[in-house]
Amino acid sequence: MFYKIIRPIVRFIVWVLNGHLHVHHKDRLPKGNYILVAPHRTWWEPLLFALGASPMEFMFMAKIELFKNPVLRFILNHAHAFPVDRKNPGPSALKVPVKGLRKGELSLIIFPSGTRHSAELKGGALVISKMSKKPMVPVVYQGPLSFKGLLKRKPMEVNFGNPITIDKKTKLTHENEQIIYKQLEDAWDKLDKELDPNFHYVAK
């Protein structure tokens, strides 16, 4: 219920601050729930992806430090966020989203690189996808990377790609992980070029 209440509020805030959110190829989203997988470019991407893919509701990974504030903890818990210790992730970082995905009610947004300034892909998204038997949907964001740029009302673009499914017989060996990573990277590159052939991400 809280998620449904806060979503239009977030949509209104985004509209007031910027007013130029454009969503592309929503028709590529599969039926049922799934895992949105994106390169991390700015902190407000999860909000835009969730708005773009509504009415689907999403789980989010959030760093455990955010849950120390009681008010923020209440909001995060009721917005389907769950805590992850980035230094020592532990099994819950995989078990919680897998369990949620298997129930079939919520989808997941995940950034395999972990942080906004890392190009290194981590294997969590692949493990979650295989264990939950849910497809990964590549998605990219292009637009302002700073709050100042956001207020200048420069267009914000979200582009969804075609689902990538990991066959249940596929073992997640290092070699197979690299093959799937390449699929994701190629998909992101294609989505970026669909929006702007000259796009090049530069970390701020």
From TrEMBL:
Keyword set, alphabetical order: Acyltransferase, Transferase
Phospholipid/glycerol acyltransferase domain sequence ranges: 34-144
Pfam family, one: Acyltransferase
Family matches, as InterPro entries: Plipid/glycerol_acylTrfase (IPR002123)
Keyword Methyltransferase listed: no
A GO molecular-function annotation: acyltransferase activity
Name of the protein described by the UniProt record: 1-acyl-sn-glycerol-3-phosphate acyltransferase
Organism annotation: Lactobacillus amylovorus subsp. animalium
Native organism taxonomy: Bacteria, Bacillati, Bacillota, Bacilli, Lactobacillales
